[in-house]
Amino acid sequence: MRYQTILVALDGSEHARFALEAAVALAEKFGSRLILTHIMDIQYFTTAWFEPPRTRSEADERVDYKPDTKAKLKETTDYQREFGRRILATAKDHVPAGIDYEIAYTVGSPREDLLKMADTYKADLIVMGSRGMGTLASMLVGSVSSYVVQHAEVPVLVIKQ
After folding, report:
1. Integer Cα distance of 89 and 94 in angstroms
2. Which partner from 8, 47, 67, 147 sits 20 to 30 angstroms from 109, CA to CA?
3. Model confidence over 37-66: pLDDT tens digits?
4. Which residues, if any, are the signal sequence (predicted)?
């Protein structure tokens, strides 16, 4: 099998770095194009900062008593965007000359958006790292790599180091 387009999921972890190394090796062997992607998980912001208000008056109270909430959320979002840009900038520095690559950055659900990107970019292979959360943690919060392996329409290479 020859891989023309390889989608590489990057999250700044050591596991993602190993995945990038594997993807680069495959791209060198097959002459593949790499799609380097980072997806800023929007769920982090909705669950980490807020428990949804149960009533309209509760929502109004939060705005009245926490006027800095919007500013904090914007500051965190800006930080995460910059973090994502740095991940991708570092990744592209590890792609040798002669390998065609493209940067893809989005905000959303890593599980679902990786699958959408694979379709959009016509990827023949998805390469990603596994954080190795363990069985219990993976069952409780879910694993992006497990989800992608189960739902992708193309082969998925999960690098576990």
Report:
1. 9
2. 67
3. 999 887 665 544 455 555 666 655 655 555
4. none
Annotate 57-85 with DSSP letters as a single string. HHHHHHHHH-TTHHHHHHHHHHHHHHHHH
- Residues near 5 by beta carbon (within 8 Å), at least 6 away in sequence: 32, 33, 34, 35, 121, 122, 123, 124, 125
- The pTM assigned to this predicted structure is 0.79
Q: What is the C-alpha separation between 161 and 158, in angstroms, rounded? A: 10
- The whole domain housing 45 covers 5-159
Residue pLDDT, tens place only, 122-154: 999 999 998 755 554 444 445 899 999 999 999
